[in-house]
Structures are given as C-alpha cells and as structure tokens.
Amino acid sequence: MDKPLWLNPHFLPLLLTIFFFPPFPLQPSLLTALQSDYVRHPPRKVVVTQHHRSKSDPQQVHTSLAGKDYMRISWITDDKDVPSEVEYGTVSGRYNAMAVGDHTSYHYFFYSSGKIHHVNIGPLEPSTTYYYRCGGHGPEFSFKTPPQTFPIEFVVAGDLGQTEWTASTLSHVDSKDYDVFILPGDLSYADTQQPLWDSFGRLVEPYASRRPWMVTEGNHEMEMFPIIYPHGFKAYNARWLMPYQQSGSTSNLYYSFNAAGSHVIMLGSYTDFDGDSAQYKWLESDLAKVDRKKTPWVVVVLHAPWHSTNLAHKGEGESMRKAMEDLLYKARVDVVFSGHVHAYERFTRIYDNKADPCGPVYITIGDGGNREGLALVFENPTSELSVYREPSFGHGRLRVVNESRAHWSWHRNNDSDSFVADEVWLQSLTTTESCWLYPGNTDGSMVNKDEL
C-alpha cells in the first residue's frame, strides 16, 4: 500500500514550488524576443459556472471509457434520493436499455458534496451515437463511441482550469470532431476550494458528456492536508473515476485503456513510482501485456514533464524519469505527453537525455487555459533535442491514421480562431525494424525532425 503523500520524498520540493514560486510574470520585452509576430495575452479571469437545474436533475455530466465496449457515465445531484441509473439507446427519446451503478459522496472540511453517481453502460457498438438520461430526471444527453479501427483522433490539453482562456480552448476543440479527450493533469484548479470542482464540472459538461474524457492527476488535484487528509486526491478520486480496475491497477491515480489500435497509459506523477512501488510494478506488467501486432501504438500520459527547456518547474519530473524511463524505452513507447509547464514544447525522440530513434517523442502541452498564466522563460541557447517551443494557450490533436502513421498538430488559441502552429507526422516504432532487432545499438544522429 502506498505511503501517505506527505511522507513521499518528492512531495516537499513540489509543495515549496507551488507556494513560493508562482508562474513567471508577463514581460513584453521577453515576448518580443520569443516570437516577434505574435503577442501573447495575459491570463484571463476565472469563469464560475452556476447550476440552473433542479436538485434532482443531473449536473457535471461526463463520460469516460470503462473497459472494452463500455462507457462510464458520471454525474452529480443535490437530491440524495435520485437513483444511480442510466437509460440509453440509439434513438433520441427511446431508451431500450438501462444500467444501474454506484454512488459516493465526500466531505472536505466544511464542504459536503452532492451525490456522485457512476454508472457503466454497455456493451456498446463502436462509432455509434447513444442517447441517454441520468437518474430518470433532466435533459437528454448523447455521446459517440470511439471507432474500433483506425483512424482515431485524440485531443490533448493539459492544465485546463476554468478561465476565459479555458472556454476558448474548449470552443476550438469543439469546432472539429474527435474521438477521445486526454487531459494530462490539473483539471479544475480548485486547490481546496471545493465549489470550484462543481463549477468546473458544469463548465466542461457540454463537451465531456459527448466524448469520453480520460484524465490523470496533477499537483493541483492533491488537496492534501497532513493528518486530516494525508493521502490527498479526495475530490479527484470521488468525482473523476477512471477505469483503473479494468486495467489491473489498484489506484485511480494510474491506469491504461485501449482505443482502436492504440494503448494509452495514464501515469501518476504524485504517487510512488520507484522500482519497488505498486505503480512501477503495474506499469511493467501493463507494458508486457501489449501485443504490438494488435495494438501498434503506445502512448504515455503524465503530468510533470521528463524533458523541458522551460525554467518553470525545472527538473520536477527527473526522479520519475530515472525510475521509469527504461521501461518505456524497452517497450518502444511512441509518444509521451505531459503538462505542468504552462507552455507548448515538442522534442525529438529521446532516451537517456540523448536523441535516439527508438525513444519516445516527448511533448509538453500544459497550455489549456489555467488561471496562473503562461511559463514564458525558456533556456537559451535552445537544446538540439527541442524541435518547437512556444508559450501560448492551445490544444493538440493526435490523429492515428493507420498502424504505421499518425499526424500530430498543435493549435494555438488566436482568440477568435485556432491556428496550427506546429505539426509533424509520426511513424510508429512497430515499423522501425532496427529498434526491435538491435535495441542496444541506436544512433540519434539520423532522426528526421519532420517525420519522427
């Protein structure tokens, strides 16, 4: 069993960073030096989203994948007598199936949550729109299940928060269809102010109720308080239940899931990860089960980046990298996404801090719209490992076209529109024969930065 979070040796440096090292201020001269043709905007105010339905009506509705052919519907009611059941079907207003699930609630100091419902529905058909109603009350919702085969498109946006920039990001995301939303930590930025969890849930409901949202925790989800809440993540675990049990994990802080021919591993930066930890052993086992012939793409998502040339949160992911990098490298993981640093940065394929054609492509995308602003200061000169970097709000899209090729694009928020500022074609490592025949003899000098 993992030890309390506040006893973790990695916790104190993180706590000090959170309280004593706020994000870098906006400096016009620095903006000019970074990119002369685009003026970055300052952080915008927090958007507080109110509840306008009845106490029995569902609010904060969101969906997530819950194992093969199943989806989880999660929502909250103020009325504690509403049943945890979902009616659903493929025709609007006609529900030919019903599933019953579980519910929970929690207290945090003087705050008491509503009734939090979690219901798994299925088995479901792929690429199919389902209509559903929660608890027998309120409006009808609908979602579309992911495809069974390629192509499949993931949206990736970290450090989301609930500001006007967040609303802009979500609007841009919604302007083009996708299959699964991936969030690499830092969801609501409630930071112990529990009503902000409710506000966040209402803000994202129009999006999260229509496509599965798969999330992992960040530092702003900890909400740890020694002795009283020593393990942290009380609100996060109660509200954002992920399919950890279906993937053999014992913790909601790390898990994996399959979508089409992609295996996505969501790791926890803020629970134990060293060689004798439960997370490390689970990751080792999970990677060993992946059949790359059936699942050619393997993607890892975590919060604190293992590689970054930004001065914000410098080195906070290093101990996790040292503990787990070999597992990812030997398994030939294709891409690693992270958040935490409020900027965008894409690296080439890396292993052991050197370019390596058999290592993952590392991408930092902690720019969803948080209230703390952007991390503007990058190291100079630029590392040869860093291909593109920019401190702007935005989101990314990973479109896996087939077994061998995927297209990655990063979309900068330009207020009224979304601009593709960086893109690259990725080649699955399953198609790189040398990475499997000669795992110990790789040469990063041959990496092509336009197609990785």
From TrEMBL:
<dbReference type="InterPro" id="IPR008963">
    <property type="entry name" value="Purple_acid_Pase-like_N"/>
</dbReference>
<dbReference type="Pfam" id="PF00149">
    <property type="entry name" value="Metallophos"/>
</dbReference>
<keyword id="KW-0408">Iron</keyword>
<protein>
    <recommendedName>
        <fullName>Purple acid phosphatase</fullName>
        <ecNumber>3.1.3.2</ecNumber>
    </recommendedName>
</protein>
<dbReference type="Pfam" id="PF16656">
    <property type="entry name" value="Pur_ac_phosph_N"/>
</dbReference>
<dbReference type="GO" id="GO:0046872">
    <property type="term" value="F:metal ion binding"/>
</dbReference>
<dbReference type="InterPro" id="IPR025733">
    <property type="entry name" value="PAPs_C"/>
</dbReference>
<dbReference type="InterPro" id="IPR041792">
    <property type="entry name" value="MPP_PAP"/>
</dbReference>
<dbReference type="InterPro" id="IPR039331">
    <property type="entry name" value="PAPs-like"/>
</dbReference>
<keyword id="KW-0325">Glycoprotein</keyword>
<dbReference type="InterPro" id="IPR004843">
    <property type="entry name" value="Calcineurin-like_PHP"/>
</dbReference>
<comment type="similarity">
    <text>Belongs to the metallophosphoesterase superfamily. Purple acid phosphatase family.</text>
</comment>
<dbReference type="GO" id="GO:0003993">
    <property type="term" value="F:acid phosphatase activity"/>
</dbReference>
<keyword id="KW-0862">Zinc</keyword>
<dbReference type="Pfam" id="PF14008">
    <property type="entry name" value="Metallophos_C"/>
</dbReference>
<feature type="domain" description="Calcineurin-like phosphoesterase">
    <location>
        <begin position="154"/>
        <end position="344"/>
    </location>
</feature>
<keyword id="KW-0732">Signal</keyword>
<dbReference type="InterPro" id="IPR015914">
    <property type="entry name" value="PAPs_N"/>
</dbReference>
<feature type="domain" description="Purple acid phosphatase N-terminal">
    <location>
        <begin position="58"/>
        <end position="145"/>
    </location>
</feature>
<feature type="domain" description="Purple acid phosphatase C-terminal">
    <location>
        <begin position="359"/>
        <end position="416"/>
    </location>
</feature>
<keyword id="KW-0378">Hydrolase</keyword>
<feature type="signal peptide">
    <location>
        <begin position="1"/>
        <end position="28"/>
    </location>
</feature>
<dbReference type="InterPro" id="IPR029052">
    <property type="entry name" value="Metallo-depent_PP-like"/>
</dbReference>
